[in-house]
């Protein structure tokens, strides 16, 4: 019975294949959406973006900057209220209220903590917004969305 042997020559090849397979598994159903200029947003300002999933259904999200005390963060969420599943902004592209220091839903007034996305006031207390991971790339923000998408270029909406 032949036994395979790991040698210093074969291990890097095996390791590279395993790494590639692991990366493929981890990224299956994941794609990135680049939103031009989003890294330059001011506090409380947001820019919407959209992308299509594999079925052609368009999903909308938004990136927002939040600067409060020592916190200076960009967040990305799906534009979808967990209460009954409507758009948060009702097409206004405004997601944040300085008066209550929260992202809020214009339909029934649910308020969400900016950093955590958790609702702490309104009809869906305890539920949370769907967050997307993001990274800054120069002036752009690259958002990782977890939809199975094959085509459909992302388009940042005019703000
Ligand atoms: S749909 Fe958002 S609070 Fe009701």
What does this 3D model show about the protein?
The chain is mainly beta. The chain has a single domain (31-156), classed as Rieske Iron-sulfur Protein. It has one helix and eleven strands, in the order H-E-E-E-E-E-E-E-E-E-E-E. The chain has one helix spanning 10-27; strands spanning 31-35, 46-52, 58-68, 71-78, 96-97, 102-104, 111-112, 119-121, 133-137, 140-145, 155-156. Strand 7 and strand 8 form a beta hairpin. Residues 149-159 have low confidence and may be disordered. The site of FE2/S2 (inorganic) cluster has 11 residues, from loops.
Briefly summarize what is shown.
With 159 residues, the chain is mostly beta strands. Helices cover 11% and strands 34% of the residues. It has a single domain, classed as Rieske Iron-sulfur Protein.
In which range does the helix fraction lie? 10-25%
Strand content: 25-35%
CATH architecture: 3-layer Sandwich
Decide which structural class fits the backbone: mainly beta
Number of domains: 1
Please tag this protein with its features:
four-stranded antiparallel sheet, binds FE2/S2 (inorganic) cluster, globular
Summarize the topology.
Elements: H1 10-27, E1 31-35, E2 46-52, E3 58-68, E4 71-78, E5 96-97, E6 102-104, E7 111-112, E8 119-121, E9 133-137, E10 140-145, E11 155-156
Antiparallel strand pairs: 1-10, 2-3, 2-11, 3-4, 5-6, 6-7, 7-8, 9-10
């Amino acid at each position: 019975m032949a036994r395979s042997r790991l040698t210093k020559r074969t291990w890097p090849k095996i390791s590279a294949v395993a790494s590639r397979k692991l990366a493929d598994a981890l990224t299956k159903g994941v794609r990135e959406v680049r939103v031009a200029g989003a890294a330059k947003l001011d506090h409380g300002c947001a820019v919407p973006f959209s992308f299509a999933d594999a079925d052609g259904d368009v999903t909308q999200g938004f990136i927002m900057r939040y600067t409060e005390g020592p916190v200076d963060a960009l967040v990305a969420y799906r534009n979808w209220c967990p209460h009954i599943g409507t758009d948060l902004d009702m097409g206004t592209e405004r997601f944040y209220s300085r008066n209550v220091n929260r992202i809020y839903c214009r339909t029934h007034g649910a308020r969400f903590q900016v950093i955590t996305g958790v609702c702490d006031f309104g009809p869906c207390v305890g539920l949370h917004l769907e967050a997307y991971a993001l990274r800054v790339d120069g002036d752009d923000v690259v958002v990782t969305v977890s939809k199975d998408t094959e085509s459909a270029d992302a388009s940042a909406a005019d703000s």
